[in-house]
Description:
Layout: E1 9-12, H1 19-30, E2 34-36, H2 37-47, H3 52-61, H4 63-76, E3 85-87, H5 91-97, E4 103-108, H6 111-122, H7 126-148, E5 160-163, H8 169-183
Helix pairs in contact: 1-8, 3-4, 3-7, 6-7
Amino acid sequence: MGRVGMVRLTVSGHPGSGTSTLVRGLMNRFGWSCLNGGDVFRDEAKRRGMPLSEFGELCKNELDVDRSLDELLQQRMQGDESADIVESRLAGWWAYKLELPIVRLWLDVNDEERARRVAEREGLSLAEALKANNQRSSVDAERFKLLYDLLPEDPEPYTHVLDAAVLNASQILDHVVAILEEAE
């Protein structure tokens, strides 16, 4: 796994698909670093003193804010200071458009399973989690379509799409390690 000064892989998926759990597993296993697009988004919301939902609406209404965050993420994906892993819903798209020769992974999980995971993680009812996930996905899909005329889950940019709905965290990690070893 010897690339130096370049991202090794992107990990993308809808909320509750297991991207963060997978990235933590890869970081622990290999001692890798990660750039999380959600953290970039949350940091900017915090810097502006805004709750995430409000900042999401701002990004939807002021497209230049969202574009600037995406440009920052793309810049940070390249060069000697890039993280080993970039995790965000559009990371695979950016790596594809930048023609980075890396593994671009989409974790595919059905709506019900994602809601179950979010409900468990955040202490919500299944119905609340499903509603929150659907609302967030709808707002984000509208924003991404308006900004870039794309949907994160479109398989075009991904080198691998992993159906992670029936796999546990260690099985997903094992699958991805095998993908990375094969890509070497």
